[in-house]
Amino acid sequence: MTETLEEKIERIIKKTLARIKYPDMDEGYRFSRYNITASQYMDLFVKQNACCPICGLHRDEFWRDFVIDHDHETGKVRGLLCMGCNTQLGVVEKYLKAPKKWDEYLKKI
Question: Please, what's the b/e burial string for 31-69 (b: 16 or more CB within 10 A of its CB; e: otherwise)?
Answer without folding.
Answer: beeeebeeeebeebbeebeebbbeeeeebeeeeebbbbb
